[in-house]
Fold dTTP/UTP pyrophosphatase.
Amino acid sequence: MSNKKLKEYKVILASASPRRQQFFGEMEIDFVVHPIHVNEIYPDHLKGPQISDYLAELKAAGYEKRLENRDILITSDTVVWHNGISLAKPADLDEAFSMLKTLSNDWHEVITSVCLTTNKSQQTVNQSTRVKFKELSHWEMDHYIRNYNPFDKAGGYGIQDWIGLIGIEEIQGSYTNVVGLPTQLVYKTLMAMVG
């Protein structure tokens, strides 16, 4: 089995995201879940992947339990980057609508950073995927916001949701990255860490 060496480690996924947990399960990686909650505030001068890198590392720094030998802590953050602006999780209906409106009929980047921390080292990797929405109608945006839950998603949408199925015309790069975890990159990095 390709991840035989990984089974000698305790992988700690510091995320409450059901999508990230599902991906780890589907990659056949044994893991435990210990969500870490931090104020996702970052310096204003950071751009694109610098933001998601910073926040993924900030979450790792917030892990109070001292990591033991053969523990691998995994923290991550996803940023939607559009026209030089980071679109975070919308605070309310109006902000969610505004985000979808600005993404409509345009390309944007979805950047996910993953920080892998042991008691001896730390490595942060990130991946960017370009996503193109069709021109979304007022009804489509309103329907999505009122019937789904965009408030826990960067940019106010989930590619795996209804809005992604009917609205996304094209993606360039990793699909799983847009969902919230660049699975191939994470697996490759974990395998390199455990040798």
